Amino acid sequence: MKRLGLALLALALAAAGYAAWRRFGRSEPPLRWLGYAEGDYLKIAPTQPGRLIRLAVARGDTVAQGALLFTQDDVADRAAVDQAKADLAGAREKLADLEGAGRAAEIDQARAELMDMQAAYDRISRDLARNEVLVRTGAATRQSVDQQRDDQRSAAAHIEAARAKLALITAATGRAHAIAAQNDAVDSAAAALRQAQWRLDQRLVTAPEAGRIADTYAQPGETAAAASPVVSLLPPGNILVRFFIPETMLARVHTGDRVRLLCDSCAPDLDARITFIATAPEYTPPVIYSAGTRASLVYLVEAHPDPARTPPLKPGQPVDVMPTAVASVP
Predict the structure, then answer these.
(1) Which of 165, 64, 152, 47 has the alpha carbon at shortest distance from 109?
(2) What is the reported pLDDT for 72?
(3) Do residues 301 and 253 lie in contact, with contact meaning Cβ atoms separated by under 8 Å?
(4) Among residues 262, 279, 203, which one has the least CA distance to residue 51?
(5) Which residues pair with residue 212 across a beta bridge?
(6) CA distance 201 to 198
(7) Cα-based torsion angle of the residue sequence 146, 148, 149, 152 in order, rounded to the nearest 10 degrees
(8) What are the angstrom distances between the C-alpha of 281 and each of 31, 183, 215, 242, 318?
(9) What are φ and ψ of residue 107, in 5° steps?
């Protein structure tokens, strides 16, 4: 009986010790959250519709910033640039003519025309005066006198037109207005050339950033619509990690905190900076589950690693995420 009592006491002490060890002495496994790598892809599309002439990249290629991705048919745009260049050259020549010394020749010509018309008017006036005397004696016909009167009026009208033309050419105000208007025409032609050149340049589409070609959506010979993606590009800086934290950890995780990333191909010291924390909870995704994750509602968190160290991460790759300051997490 005494031995049985001692055995029961020893068993009780062992059970108490085990409970104390579980409560105070056992080290908890490091806290970690399950997540996956993801990418924000750049969908590269033409700015205007056109037939695809060349696709310079393929899936999986690594390209540098400014590398050629694809080209479109540019025959019409080249013709538009040539036409705009010709229009600009013509506008500049006209402006130079307005501003140049060659205007003196035009003024001399206008003065000569006025003098010639004045001489014609004087001649007709003399003939008319003489025939008006002769018509009384029958030496001239009334018909010829009437014709000369019409010729006199016509000559007077030509003189007025010549005087107006000479006044327009020699007037400083009128010429300044013409020069200002032609300057505007030159500016308009230059703007049309810049627009035509821009449209031509858009036919060669280059990579806005360095990265890896994730996919292509069209082939040479197809007509690509404006804003319809032709190439999908993934820059290293657009690779991120998405993971979920339970509501109980929400107050301890902040934007800007750094977390440690663990995966099969990751460097031992790979970390990332938290850039986004969802404000609304969601149900635990079916692919993110474990014995240690039992919360029914979790919050989505996004973290961006250093772009220089992201190549090992592939979109869709499972990644374990740990807080860098494990000791601060209960």
Answers:
(1) 165
(2) 97
(3) yes
(4) 203
(5) 62, 234
(6) 5
(7) 160
(8) 20, 63, 33, 14, 21
(9) -65, -45
CA 208/CA 235 separation, integer angstroms: 9
pLDDT confidence tier of residue 325, bands split at 50, 70 and 90: low
Q: Which two tokens stand for residue 30?
A: 């490091």
pLDDT of residue 151: 85
**Residue 274 and residue 256: Cα distance in Å, rounded?**
5
- Cα 53 to Cα 223: distance, rounded to the nearest angstrom: 9
Looking at residue 269, its pLDDT comes to 84
Report how far apart the first and last C-alpha atoms of the chain are (Å, whole number).
46
Q: Which two structure tokens, joined as six digits, stand for 55?
A: 């696709």
CA–CA gap between residue 122 and residue 107 (Å, rounded) = 23
Average pLDDT over residues 157-172: 79
- pTM (global) more than 0.70: no
Token pair of 261 as six digits: 């990333």
Output the six-digit token pair for 100. 């140049």
What is the 3 state secondary structure string of the chain? CHHHHHHHHHHHHHHHHHHHHHHHHCCCCCCCEEEEEEECCEEECCCCCEEEEEECCCCCCEECCCCEEEEECCHHHHHHHHHHHHHHHHHHHHHHHHHCCCHHHHHHHHHHHHHHHHHHHHHHHHHHHHHHHHHHHCCCCHHHHHHHHHHHHHHHHHHHHHHHHHHHHHCHHHHHHHHHHHHHHHHHHHHHHHHHHHHHHCCEEECCCCEEEEEECCCCCCEECCCCCCEEEECHHHEEEEEEEEHHHHHHCCCCCEEEEECCCCCCCCEEEEEEECCCCEECCCCCCECCECCCEEEEEEEEECHHHCCCCCCCCEEEEEECCHHHCC
Q: b or e along 52-83 (b: 16 or more beta carbons within 10 Å of the residue's beta carbon)?
A: beebbbeeebebeeeeebbbbebeebeebbee
β-pair type (231-234, 211-216)? antiparallel
pLDDT score recorded for residue 190: 96
- For residues 17-43, one letter each, b for 16 or more C-beta atoms within 10 angstroms of the residue's C-beta and e for the rest, the string is eeeeeeeeeeeeeeebbbbbbbbebbe
